[in-house]
Structures are given as structure tokens and as C-alpha cells.
Amino acid sequence: MGKFSIDTAIQRVLDKGDKAFVPYIMAGDGGLDQLESQIRLLANAGATIIELGIPFSDPVADGPTIQAAGQRALTSGVTLKKVLDELKRFKESRDIPIVLMTYINPVFTYGPKRFAEDCEASGVDGVIVPDVPLEESDLVSNALKEHEIAFIRLATLTSTPDRLAKIAEQTEGFLYAVTINGITGVQNRFGDQLGNHLTNIKQQTDKPVFAGFGVSSPEHVRELTAYCDGVIVGSKIVDLLHQGNEEEIQTLIQSAKTAHV
Ligand SMILES: O=P(O)(O)OC[C@@H](O)[C@@H](O)c1c[nH]c2ccccc12
Q1: H helical segments located in 193-234
Q2: 204 Cα: distance to centroid of ligand 1 (angstroms)
Q3: Which atom from ligand 1 is nearest to the alpha carbon of 238?
Q4: CATH classification of 2-254 is 3.20.20.70, yes or no?
Q5: ipTM score here?
Q6: What's in the GO CC field (predicted)?
């Protein structure tokens, strides 16, 4: 349960010599009644952990694909509470860790303490809150700590060495290394310095480092996992799921398995 199941899932993959693959999906895109089968599909395709987005009206870091998915979910009436209730309903039959990705506003509205309690009751193992600054994250992190839920921190390309050291120290489960300056979405090419950047982050921490933002092809997965322990893929997975393209989802996820064998 909680952060331990994240650690275990990652270790199992790395011990085999594979890399981790974390697909992001928007909760309630396609209807909340689809969530269970979407998670099962991704787990069966070989995902290590699921990053589950909570729809929010003002998603500042989301690119067009994720924004559109969020809109579809909001239109169908999805809320944080409904997502947690739904996760609780099929908690026992899941065997893949779940990380919620939510902006800070819904957490404050819900109440950080109640949020952490309900996350535990729903079998949520970790949480990512991209818009909470390091200096102001105590309110959330203390509540999560009591329930042994991992608080996953993001490092950006512009994080200073000083901040990077703090992020590396505080992150739990894994460190989310953002690959581009900008918003989420499909990219064709990463900056020339990205390899050095990821290598530098790897040198700062013993915790697993996963790269995310703009990863959309097996080639990207292979390119980035040469420098880190895994990838996070959002927009491309959201698109493929929306199209019902299970075959390409499978190919993309499996590309992390054969990355370095
Ligand atoms: O969509 P991309 O480019 O593959 O990026 C991952 C991403 O979608 C997911 O992790 C995410 C969705 N919204 C976010 C907001 C901030 C940080 C991360 C995210």
C-alpha cells in the first residue's frame, strides 16, 4: 500500500533490466465508468504505475490534448470526490499503483487532511501537485506523510542546483524530471542538453528519475531512458485511448521493456 507499493513496482522493473513506463490518463475522460477498464488495459499492456489526472478548470501546465480531455471529463460532471469514490469501488481488484495528479486548488477545496485520508481509503499510492511551490508544500506533504502516500516532486530544466538538491531529497517514489520548458504535449525533438540535464539529476539522487513532457514514441522512450529510469507519457496516451488504439498503446508501453536488454 501507499508509497511502498510504488517503490516495489519500480524495483521489480529495474531489477529485470527494464525501464519504468508511467502512462497518464485523465480521470473521467470517456466517462468515469470507463476508468476501471482503462486502468486494466494499461496495466495489462505493461505499465509500471498509472498517473491519474483530476480534471480542473484552470490547468496551467496542460497542453491542448490534456486540456481537451479535462474538458470532456468536467462536462460529464467528474469531481475529485467522484474519482476517489470510484477508485475505492474497485480498489481490491487493482494491482498497479495509482498516482493522482492534481492542481493544488481542488486539494485545498477538499481539505488536505480529508484528501489524504480519502486517498488512503481509495488505495491511492502517490500524489503529484505541479503548482505547489517547494516552500509551501508542507500543508499537503504533512497530511500525506501520515497516510504513507508518496509526494512526488518535479524538477524543471530551470531548477537551480540548490532547489534541485531539495527536490531530490524530498521527493518520494520517484523524481519527475520535466524535459522541456513549457506545457504538456507531443514533441518532435528534445533540446541538445537534455541528456546532460538528466545525467546531472541522476547524479544528485539515488531515487529513480523519470522523464516526462513531450514523450510520444518508442524512439523517444529509448532516447530518454538511456539517461534515466523511466518515462511518463500523457498526451500521446490520452490521444490513443480516445481513439481506442490499443495496439499502439501496447507497442509504446512495451518500448520501455526492451530499451536496454
Ligand atoms: O502530455 P505529456 O507531454 O506526455 O506530459 C506528461 C503529462 O501529461 C502528465 O504528467 C501531466 C499532465 N498534466 C500535467 C501538469 C503538470 C505536470 C505533469 C502533467
Answers
A1: 194-204, 218-225
A2: 23
A3: 1
A4: yes
A5: 0.98
A6: cytosol
